[in-house]
């Protein structure tokens, strides 16, 4: 009864306090707590505060009212909504022992008094003295009398509420679809939507964590300098010309866009402009020729629609081959030919230093008389003065522009139609863009995911760590190529050479990503950028270290070469010094030493005195400081200069450099470097600070194919048999070497034979089943997916009449005692998909009459094999030794050979790759001497021999078993420590696999498990550790001997972190 009284008092106090606040506010009779403004008003720029809360200034000036409203909005967001919280805190106090009724009532009144006084101050109003006294004094007195009790009042709020963490604030200064605003507000963000002048934006930006813009807001250096806590800028759309990306990068502010939401909308709008020219001037578009500059996402959509209108389509794109263009019914041409032959020209390319003034006076003069031009991309692509002159002269009959008009007289010309960059403004497109951008900002601010980030190529943002230096080097060399590419040059092939580096494929990906950052309409977010270039017809080639200039003094080099359609090429070579300094050390054949970082200017010059003085004089006159200078020169007095500048030079500064008589080919290049440690935010969760600092050196914990051994290097493999026949003496000798080393390492008894057969372990085991099963009943003992597959083979493929199914569910071992010694037995020693193994072979009778067929693919070399109990053993190279897939090993005992020689299955189809006997039913023993049924990969054979040599160096099978046991111990201890949320799938400790370790997470859904594995992969911690598709949801972590114990020790804290992260989300 007393508790109910306390709650009643508290409730009454809260309601009365709220009533006092509401009725005392002067100048307003309407009060709606927390109501959002209608989105149509937001989009029109109506101040959010007045619309939301219904207050006016009570006679104050408009400026003061606006400021007061803004302050009031912050108060309401942070304080007023805590008035109901007073009741909840009071309830907590009651249940924790509480204090007197006056203290319970004071919780509500004290909170209300705080809001009341603050609002009155913000509005410049005179508080009602009696009400203020009631609210303030009652609350303070009660709390003071019970000061020892106040801790109880703050220690027991409901978990879902937080009274200390302020919600991150996001400012949206351009209209976006309300779906994105709703998305953010529903996740606790304070979102202010209003149009601000440049000065107002500078004043407002210090309070915000995120900024959303379209093309209307200019985010310049002044704005960024004022941004004290800004962490991310989101562009609702593609182009970021209105954002000073370089300045944002220097401050550690992420810039992201949403490039894939409006392709079709932009293409449709382009067609509307193209067909809208005055029909008294043109006779329609059918049969006319259109030249499309830029065949990316939008340009390719435009080409389809132009073809549907019956137009002839010409295309130019530096990253689309002739073959790829022709495949789309586009005639590939040079930029000059496109201008000369087109009735219509439409531009769909990004703005870069290379594409600036793409349509200049010279190209406009090449155009047909009366040409029509459409530009829905960027105004910088046109020389506006030259285009205006062409309009006046009649060379150009009409121009349609989708961009914000400036004061330039071009936009006022009678033959120019303009729209304010609304080409992608369909409702559907804007909703997609808005929601996508809101999601990206949310993930970036919570550090859970980073999509479409444009300015952090050097960082792994999830782990807040630098990417591997040679990956960054390759990316920058690709970016440098793109920015040095001439306006008429097209790339036909890209080659990469990595001396001293084995991961050329990753380096090629990085180089392609750097290239595409600058040569397509937007940031490339596709993981497989190589496929993007392949689709555009670009040939990509990886070379070996032998192709690097042997005269170089550097031991580790990455060289990226772009081959152009005119037969020329450019080769850029770089290295890494002191672990993190990226250097350009060769430009074609020219040796130099230049820092690959930040803002750079490249130029050619005559190698004579005074050139550098002229350059420094120009830069000094524009207040630009030189950070570093690199120079390469030839014996012919030709030189290449590279400047690293502290600031991006303005257009006048670049023009002044270009006018220096000694210089030519002046090119501006920006190689962005996000600071390694972006400033922390108050909104970071505790989980971020708990993120482990140490990562495994290798991310490969998958259960097949498995990790290569620690000493592995692809370039160390012999190439002696490449291009040679496997039937040659050399080929057979290497195959026999692999067989003999396998027998020696596994300690096979005399009389046992071993051969290399097709189709990995699956092929080897089915080969044994097809050749040996039939004379006796068969017991198929299985407890995972692959064992169950052997049962299906026996009953449905071989159609054996007498087959017993001895099975157990995932996590358990069947009753092995049921096996009949007079039956043939098929079983897996170690269930790769279940993590359950047989503890020993005691259940196999010594006096058996049946054959024992053992699938040991994840057990061979990792677990002791009692060969006297095994008649057939199969495994693949890709498991314990980390070899390559596609090849299997078949071991037969003398008993199995005897069965093979005497049993001839009738009416049983025998595929060629299963045949162990010739047409005379004689065993083809040469299979066990180095011959093979089909053609093996000799490179894979060399790889396997290399793994066998490594295994022997570890002490053979006993040494490998010890390594696996040590690895398993790490996970065993991890599970014991965290058994409240994780456990082994294997129920019996004696049956737990020491290679394919399967874990079940008790409180985690499939979606959360998927998110965990995504997090670990995104942070470059672990890949391929999800459970097998048919197994219970969980994790499967490979602990074979090729995995380093230290890597597993580094992995387990990440497992704990990822589990906590997904549950927090």
TrEMBL record:
Catalysed reaction, written as an equation: (2R)-3-phosphoglycerate + NAD(+) = 3-phosphooxypyruvate + NADH + H(+)
A GO CC term assigned to this protein in UniProt: membrane
Localization (cell): Membrane
Keywords, alphabetical: Membrane, Oxidoreductase, Pyridoxal phosphate, Transmembrane, Transmembrane helix
Gene Ontology biological-process entries: L-serine biosynthetic process
Required cofactor names: pyridoxal 5'-phosphate
Pathway in which this enzyme or protein is active: Amino-acid biosynthesis; L-serine biosynthesis; L-serine from 3-phospho-D-glycerate: step 1/3
Compositionally biased region (Polar residues): 680-693
Entry-linked Gene3D superfamilies: 3.30.70.260, Aspartate Aminotransferase, domain 1, D-3-phosphoglycerate dehydrogenase, domain 3, Membrane associated eicosanoid/glutathione metabolism-like domain, NAD(P)-binding Rossmann-like Domain, Type I PLP-dependent aspartate aminotransferase-like (Major domain)
PROSITE patterns linked: ACT, D_2_HYDROXYACID_DH_1, D_2_HYDROXYACID_DH_2
Main location: membrane
Single GO term (MF): O-phospho-L-serine:2-oxoglutarate aminotransferase activity
Pfam annotation, one family: ACT
Enzyme class: oxidoreductase
Domain ACT positions: 600-674
Record's protein name: phosphoglycerate dehydrogenase
Organism: Aphanomyces astaci
């Amino acid at each position: 009864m007393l508790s109910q009284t306390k709650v009643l008092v508290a409730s009454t106090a809260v309601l009365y306090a709220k009533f006092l606040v509401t009725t005392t506010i002067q100048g307003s009779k309407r009060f709606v707590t927390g109501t959002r403004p209608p989105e149509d008003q937001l989009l029109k720029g109506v101040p959010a505060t007045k619309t939301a809360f219904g207050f006016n200034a009570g006679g104050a000036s408009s400026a003061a009212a606006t400021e007061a409203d803004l302050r009031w909005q912050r108060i309401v967001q942070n304080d007023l909504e805590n008035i109901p919280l007073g009741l909840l805190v009071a309830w907590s106090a009651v249940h924790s022992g509480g204090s007197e009724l006056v203290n319970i009532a004071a919780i509500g009144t004290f909170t209300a008094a705080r809001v009341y006084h603050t609002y009155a101050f913000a509005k410049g109003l005179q508080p009602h003295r009696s009400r203020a006294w009631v609210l303030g004094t009652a609350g303070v007195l009660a709390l003071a009398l019970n000061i020892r009790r106040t801790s109880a009042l703050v220690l027991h709020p409901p978990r879902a509420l937080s009274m200390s963490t302020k919600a991150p604030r996001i400012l949206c200064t351009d209209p976006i679809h309300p779906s994105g605003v709703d998305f953010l507000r529903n996740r606790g963000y304070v979102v202010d939507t209003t149009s601000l002048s440049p000065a107002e934006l500078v004043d407002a930006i210090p309070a915000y964590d995120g900024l959303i813009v379209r093309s209307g807001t200019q985010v310049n250096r002044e704005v960024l300098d004022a941004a004290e806590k800004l962490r991310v800028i989101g562009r609702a759309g593609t182009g970021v010309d209105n954002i000073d990306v370089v300045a944002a990068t220097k401050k550690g502010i992420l810039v992201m866009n949403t490039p894939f939401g409006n392709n079709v909308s932009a293409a449709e709008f382009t067609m509307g402009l193209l067909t809208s020219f005055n029909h008294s001037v043109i006779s329609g578009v059918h049969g006319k020729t259109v030249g499309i500059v830029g065949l990316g996402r939008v340009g390719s959509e435009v080409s389809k629609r132009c073809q549907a209108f019956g137009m002839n389509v010409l295309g130019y794109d530096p990253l689309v081959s002739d073959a790829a263009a022709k495949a789309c019914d586009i005639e590939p041409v040079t930029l000059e030919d496109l201008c000369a032959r087109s009735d219509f020209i439409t531009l769909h390319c990004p703005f870069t230093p290379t594409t600036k003034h793409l349509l200049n006076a010279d190209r406009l003069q090449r155009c047909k008389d009366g040409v029509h031009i459409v530009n829905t991309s960027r105004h910088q692509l046109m020389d506006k003065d030259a285009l205006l002159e062409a309009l006046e002269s009649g060379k150009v009959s009409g121009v349609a522009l989708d961009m914000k008009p400036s004061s330039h007289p071009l936009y006022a010309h009678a033959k120019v139609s303009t729209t304010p960059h609304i080409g992608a403004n369909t409702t559907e497109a804007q909703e997609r863009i808005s929601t996508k951008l809101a999601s990206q900002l949310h993930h970036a601010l919570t550090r859970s995911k980073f999509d479409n980030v444009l300015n952090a190529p050097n960082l792994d943002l999830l782990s807040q760590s630098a990417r591997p230096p040679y990956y960054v080097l390759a990316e920058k060399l690709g970016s440098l190529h793109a920015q040095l590419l001439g306006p008429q040059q097209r790339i036909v092939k890209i080659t990469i050479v990595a001396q001293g580096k084995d991961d050329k494929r990753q380096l090629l990906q990085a180089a392609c990503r750097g290239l595409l950052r600058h040569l397509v309409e937007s940031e490339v977010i596709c993981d497989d950028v190589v496929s993007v270039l392949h689709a555009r017809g670009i040939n990509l080639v990886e070379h070996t270290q032998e192709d690097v200039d042997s005269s170089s003094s550097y031991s580790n080099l990455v060289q990226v070469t772009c081959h152009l359609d005119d037969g020329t090429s450019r080769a850029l070579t770089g290295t890494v010094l002191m672990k993190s300094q990226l250097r350009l050390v060769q430009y074609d054949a020219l040796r130099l030493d230049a820092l690959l970082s930040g803002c750079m200017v490249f130029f050619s010059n005559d190698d004579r005195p005074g050139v550098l003085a002229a350059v420094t004089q120009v830069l000094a006159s524009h207040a630009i400081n030189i950070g570093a200078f690199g120079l390469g020169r030839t014996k012919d007095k030709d030189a290449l200069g590279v400047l690293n500048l502290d600031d991006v030079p303005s257009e006048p500064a670049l023009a002044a450099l270009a006018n220096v008589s000694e210089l030519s080919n002046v090119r501006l290049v920006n190689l962005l470097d996000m600071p390694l440690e972006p400033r922390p935010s108050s909104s970071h969760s505790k989980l971020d600070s708990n993120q482990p600092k140490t990562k495994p050196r290798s991310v490969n914990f998958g259960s097949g194919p498995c990790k290569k051994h620690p000493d592995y290097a692809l370039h160390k493999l012999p190439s002696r048999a490449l291009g040679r026949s496997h039937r040659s003496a050399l080929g057979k000798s290497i195959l026999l070497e692999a067989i003999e080393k396998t027998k020696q390492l596994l300690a096979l008894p005399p009389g046992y034979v071993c051969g290399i057969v097709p189709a990995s372990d699956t092929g080897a085991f089915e080969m044994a089943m097809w050749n040996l099963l039939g004379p006796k009943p068969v017991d198929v003992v299985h407890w995972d997916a692959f064992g169950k597959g052997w049962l299906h083979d026996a009953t449905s493929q071989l159609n054996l009449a007498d087959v017993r199914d001895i099975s157990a569910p995932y996590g358990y071992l069947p009753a092995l005692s049921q096996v009949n010694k007079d039956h043939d037995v098929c079983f897996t020693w170690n269930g790769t998909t279940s993590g359950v193994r047989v503890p020993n072979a005691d259940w196999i009778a010594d006096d058996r009459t049946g054959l024992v067929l053992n699938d040991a693919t994840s057990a061979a070399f990792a677990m002791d094999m009692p060969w006297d109990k095994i008649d057939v053993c199969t495994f693949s190279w890709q498991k314990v030794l980390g070899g390559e897939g596609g090849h299997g090993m078949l071991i037969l005992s003398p008993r199995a050979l005897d069965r093979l020689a005497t049993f001839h299955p009738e009416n049983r189809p025998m595929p060629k790759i299963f045949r162990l006997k010739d047409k005379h039913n004689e065993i083809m023993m040469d299979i066990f001497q180095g011959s093979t049924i089909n053609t093996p990969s000799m490179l894979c054979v060399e790889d396997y021999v290399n793994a066998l040599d490594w295994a022997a160096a570890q002490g053979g099978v006993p040494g490998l078993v010890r390594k696996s046991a040590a690895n398993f111990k790490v996970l065993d201890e991890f599970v014991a420590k965290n058994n409240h949320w994780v456990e082994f799938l294997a129920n019996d400790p004696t049956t737990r696999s020491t290679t394919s370790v399967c874990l079940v997470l008790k409180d985690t859904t499939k979606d959360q498990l998927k998110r965990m594995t995504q997090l670990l992969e995104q942070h470059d911690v672990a890949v391929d550790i999800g459970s097998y598709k048919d197994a219970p949801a969980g994790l499967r972590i490979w602990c074979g001997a090729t995995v380093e114990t230290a890597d597993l020790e580094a992995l387990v804290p990440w497992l704990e972190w990822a589990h906590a992260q997904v549950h927090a989300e």
